[in-house]
Design brief:
The chain has 175 residues and is α/β, with parallel strands linked by helices. The chain contains 6 helices and 5 strands. The protein is 50% helix and 17% strand.
């Protein structure tokens, strides 16, 4: 009986030693810490770069020249074509203001379609609101009205975010 008890104690001790062997040593932990810090620094550097380019805000594009100049060098942008007197455009504005602060990896802008007829015609904007998604300086997709957002005025910011993520104009890692 004593022998069995000692054998069980020895087995338990062996298991504990095995678990300790599976733990990373101090050098491994330090390496992991350095990797995490490097990754955080890289993300912060990217955020600072994007902030310098006007990301993190939802702002007006005042003229057509600015529109083309800003977007030709953007990896990702969301542009809302709106009319000031359109209630549904106000709904889109509210959601995009929230997303612009959350997704600094993407530039968010809006442009008055009536004051920019050349851009609206060139991009075939025929209904408002229209959200144009830009990738690598080129228009990639247009969300016309609320059809992709459930077809209702009371869609959530999360619904719009999911649609933009699906079109890869937002990055999942920044959610």
């Amino acid at each position: 009986m004593l022998l069995q008890t000692l054998e069980r104690a020895e087995e338990e001790l062996d298991e504990k030693l095995e678990r300790m062997d599976d733990r990373p040593d101090e050098d491994e932990l330090e390496r992991l810490r350095r990797q995490r810090l490097d990754k955080l620094r890289k993300v912060q550097s990217e955020k600072a770069k994007w902030a310098a380019l006007g990301h993190g805000d939802y702002r007006d594009c005042v003229d057509q020249k600015q529109f083309f100049e800003e977007l030709k060098k953007e990896q990702r942008a969301v542009v809302h074509f709106y009319r000031p007197s359109n209630r549904r455009c106000d709904i889109v504005d509210a959601h995009l203001r929230v997303l612009a602060k959350k997704h600094v990896e993407t530039k968010f802008m809006r442009i008055d379609a009536e004051r920019s007829p050349f851009v609206a015609e060139k991009l075939k904007i025929w209904a408002l609101p229209t959200i144009v998604l830009v990738k690598d300086g080129k228009t990639d997709h247009s969300i016309i009205g609320f059809e992709e957002l459930g077809g209702r005025d009371d869609f959530s910011t999360e619904t719009l975010e999911r649609v933009l993520l699906a079109h890869e104009v937002l990055l999942e890692s920044f959610c």
